[in-house]
Amino acid sequence: MHLVMQASVELNKQGFFVAEVLKVLRPPTICWRDAQQVVSNMRTHLSCFASFSRHDLPSKSASVR
Predict the structure, then answer these.
(1) 26 falls within a domain
(2) Residue 8 in contact with residue 61, Cβ under 8 Å?
């Protein structure tokens, strides 16, 4: 399932991007811990999605969390 792999890469890119933007902006209304939670939630959601085709994914992505 190449699509799942692509989604994995895109989601990680987005999570990293969000984290980097928040690091630079440091908006007072958003706690850095909350931002990390959002990224963590994205990764959790992704691993649920990826579990449908786990045999197609490299074992590395399972240990990302």
Answers:
(1) yes
(2) yes
Mean pLDDT by 10 residues, the chain (65 residues): 65 70 63 73 71 55 52
Residue 31 has a pLDDT of 62
**65 belongs to a structural domain:** no
60 inside domain? no
Total domain count, the chain: 1
pTM as predicted: 0.28
Separation CA 39–CA 54 (nearest Å): 21
Q: What local confidence, expressed as pLDDT, does residue 32 receive? A: 63
